[in-house]
Amino acid sequence: MGSITDWSKYPRISRIATAAAADVGRGSETLMTYVRGDLFRSARHLALGTEQPRRARRENRRKTKRPARALVVTGFYIPQAQQPAAETDGPLGALEVCMALRAVGGDAWLISDEHCAPVICAAAGDLLPEDRVLIAPHAKPEFDAWFNMVIDLVKRHGIDTLVFIERVGPARDGRPRNMRGVDIAEWTAPLSQLALLELHTIGVGDGGNEIGMGRVADYAISGVVAHGESIACTVAADQLVVAGTSNWGAHALVCAMRALGCPQVEPYLEPDWHRAVLDAIVAAGGLDGVHMTNVPTVDGLDPARYFGTVAQLSAFARH
């Protein structure tokens, strides 16, 4: 692996960031300008852990550089659909980041909640070990016990990173809202509380209401996103990747790792891998978040455009 701090790699990663942020109608190209450089910093952290968790920095402890060990959180439930389920955007990208981290010598735990569980578990399939998929209960007493279990897990395995990918978070009123402005707290476990663990945190989002978007000024979100003033998530992240779809943002992270000198992630650059996982997600009931229908598409995009961008990002990673 080449020098992970080599800024000569940055122009390639800048192209990846720009392509991933292609606007599909939610202002991603504008929002991305507020976090320029975050894709480079996020990928560098995942590949070599060059940033210390805040807790470690406070205690002045030295940290041996190694690939990140991360909790990767996803799952956006669509209760208004005829057959409610999690959407197709998020689980695919979250699994890709988990697989990439494990490929480079790190580790990852895929996390969601019980309403999204069928889709999340289908995405993981036989690719992740069963003990690397964690499903949070929704009810408070059970959630609190689960949260304590995660605290113990973090300590036991030296987990240092938290990645939120297309995971809705609390707006100004403390309620999680979808892109239509609908309060979905009834179907959403408070996984934003994982930010209290004070791990290095990366957010990936596409609409302003995802955890991590608190890194962008709320006036910027309200200026380009429908219902932005009421849906903008207030939870920030150390770095934020804004993309046209969150799956593209997650793929951009993995492509940036490849650009930084991690050939181990090559299998996840292939569009056919993405198609296979998307098919498994849809077979488990996953929904296109725009159409709210059980079809193998993401955010209402034509498959040629969606997978064309996946392929373009992979090409930028390699050259």
Automatic annotation (TrEMBL):
Domain of life: Bacteria
A Pfam family assignment: GLUCM-like_C
Occurrences of domain D-glutamate cyclase-like C-terminal (ranges): 18-313
Name under which the protein is recorded: DUF4392 domain-containing protein
Organism encoding this protein: Bifidobacterium bifidum
Upper lineage: Bacteria, Bacillati, Actinomycetota, Actinomycetes, Bifidobacteriales
